[in-house]
Amino acid sequence: xxxxxxxxxxxxxxxxxxxxxxxxxxxxxxxxxxxxxxxxxxxxxxxxxxxxxxxxxxxxxxxxxxxxxxxxxxxxxxxxxxxxxxxxxxxxxxxxxxxxxxxxxxxxxxxxxxxxxxxxxxxxxxxxxxxxxxxxxxxxxxxxxxxxxxxxxxxxxxxxxxxxxxxxxxxxxxxxxxxxxxxxxxxxxxxxxxxxxxxxxxxxxxxxxxxxxxxxxxxxxxxxxxxxxxxxxxxxxxxxxxxxxxxxxxxxxxxxxxxxxxxxxxxxxxxxxxxxxxxxxxxxxxxxxxxxxxxxx
Length: 297
Ligand SMILES: C[S@@+](CC[C@H](N)C(=O)[O-])C[C@H]1O[C@@H](n2cnc3c(N)ncnc32)[C@H](O)[C@@H]1O
Known about the structure:
Rossmann fold
């Protein structure tokens, strides 16, 4: 894929966005990149509160955010805008915030042409104003540090599924914004195989790990559950009636999948993960039945 495979479009809701002409998908359709990044990822994850929740034993410990599918960097930039707001509110004088956690964003991307295209068209996206240097430095040096020193932004290029296997044990996320293309064109990113690797990485942190994504597909939710996560109904955002919240801890879900969902799952004909053929069917059924989220049902 190259920068010529993208174009600036206006969505049906009147937002300026980017269309990938090869897979024919519009980014953050229809509300546009900025609203979706903020509604679905930044606000729903309560990023602001998480940054303000400093551990007294380890106040300098950064909050690690995995930005899966960096793309045009809307989600990462929304997180950066949010964090700068937190740091400035806490110490407006010099923009340093002793009472807030630093933010360490780790962005994953296997094709940087979308970021290059976004940079070339930065004037179409007000949220990029002032961050062109950050985006350039991410592309060139694979990292950027904010002038206040509180935000580090790192890029891990390559296929997410391979990169996290190489990285296992070295960095564990607290929060994950999971935003690949949709399962119909980017199936491999929504598989049990991929989520199992992701779950293994979460073992590296003692804090609960939360993930937010736009897909509500049953095979996706089933794959998260089978990988060992707990899964909840995510908030409606934009024109989406529902999204998905995933966590390593049942108590941190705002609205866990419930007995009604479990009943529907048992009757569903499209319940299994997209890569179910790589597993023994009965074993997957047994694992779902034994899942602690539904054991009481
Ligand atoms: C919907 S776009 C992401 C939009 C982006 N989050 C934003 O805020 O602008 C999906 C992105 O995921 C990337 N992607 C897809 N499969 C991937 C993989 N296996 N590893 C890393 N990145 C991947 C695509 O190249 C694309 O840039």
